[in-house]
Design a protein that fits this description.
By secondary structure, the chain is α/β, with parallel strands linked by helices. It contains twelve helices and 14 strands. Helices cover 44% and strands 15% of the residues. The chain binds serine. Serine binds next to loops.
């Protein structure tokens, strides 16, 4: 069955790579990338791209109708760190955009939705080790609150209106193509860029702050797999715990030093430390592994190798073209 796909927030860290992958799978003409801005020039110049504000219901609806869309990936969101600076904007963006797509599905204008949740749904009262799917959830960030409430609405729309919405609680995602923006786990991407560019990094989290993380290729694989699974196998309609690895800034630094021995890290924790402290250290994702056969591939050493290799190429090209 052919699918016409709309990606909202396609310019972001995950949205951009998802767009490239979906274009490969379904054909360029069947994947419409949209974002509120045109900043991601690689993405904007590589296929169909439209400017779209995820908060604008009429705009989203028009786009869906114009391209005969049946599946929406809603990747637009304000993440944890930026959300603490702009709480009301974070609430409005994260909730309005979700209601828009849920309502389009309720009205049978679209058929299927992917909406990402996050480890930010958990809070300081949640057990931090091997955090279970069903547990105490008292998020303390605006971002976490929007994701937790969003999960409840997804399940509600599934139960009441039979809306086929699927969701994963992403951990911190590590990638080299598009920079993340405004998250607490972003240090785990910045550190590789700085290692390649300057051989030093000032980390905004303490050295022993352990958080759940995942390489982008695994995150994309999971996203595609949950969307391709049979509806009856998706037994959780709030959002699935999903994990790959967990590590601390010190452990990433050590793995980088194996390749760049002169790399130096120092620590200057800021307001993001409190956010990180409120999140789990590791996640129990047995339901995802059972229901739709989730399995990660990349370990920390694999990620470090790939990040240093890809960023090494990227920065030497930039250097060459600027000479
Ligand atoms: N990467 C996100 C953040 O740090 C967590 O989902 O905000």
């Amino acid at each position: 069955m052919s699918s016409k796909i709309l990606i909202i927030g396609a310019g972001g860290q995950i949205g951009s790579e998802l767009t490239y992958k979906l274009r490969q799978m379904y054909g360029e003409e069947n994947v419409i990338a949209t974002d509120i801005n045109r900043n991601n020039s690689d993405l904007v110049n590589s296929g169909t791209f439209k400017t779209l504000d995820a908060k604008d219901y009429e705009g989203v609806k028009k786009c869906v109708e114009m391209y005969n869309i049946d599946t929406v990936y809603l990747m637009a969101a304000m993440l944890s760190a930026t959300g603490e600076k702009f709480p009301e904007e974070a609430w409005n963006l994260n909730m309005d955009s979700l209601f828009h797509v849920l309502n389009l599905a309720k009205d049978k204008i679209i058929k299927k939705i992917f909406w990402p949740s996050s480890i930010a749904v958990f809070g300081p009262t949640t057990p931090t080790e091997y955090t279970p799917q069903y547990t105490t959830m008292e998020p303390t960030t605006v971002y976490g609150i929007t994701k937790q409430v969003g999960e409840r609405w997804c399940e509600y729309y599934f139960n009441k209106y039979n809306v086929d919405v699927r969701s994963i609680r992403y951990p911190g995602i590590i990638s080299w193509k598009t920079m993340p923006g405004g998250g607490t786990t972003d240090y785990a991407v910045e550190i590789y860029h700085e290692a390649v560019k300057t051989k030093q990094y000032k980390c905004f989290l303490k050295e022993d702050t352990e958080l759940p993380m995942m390489f982008m290729d695994d995150a994309i694989k999971a996203t595609i797999n949950i969307m391709m699974a049979r509806a009856k196998d998706i037994k959780i309609r709030s959002s699935y715990n999903m994990a790959a690895i967990s590590f601390t800034p010190k452990e990433v630094a050590e793995s980088i030093k194996k390749h760049i021995p002169e790399f130096e890290i120092n620590y200057a924790p800021d307001y993001r430390q409190d956010i990180a402290n409120s999140w789990p250290k590791s996640i129990n994702d047995s339901y995802a592994r059972q229901d739709w056969k989730w399995k990660h591939s990349f370990l920390l050493e694999d990620i470090t190798e790939e990040m240093l290799f890809q960023l090494g190429k990227k920065y030497s090209t930039i250097l060459k073209t600027s000479q």
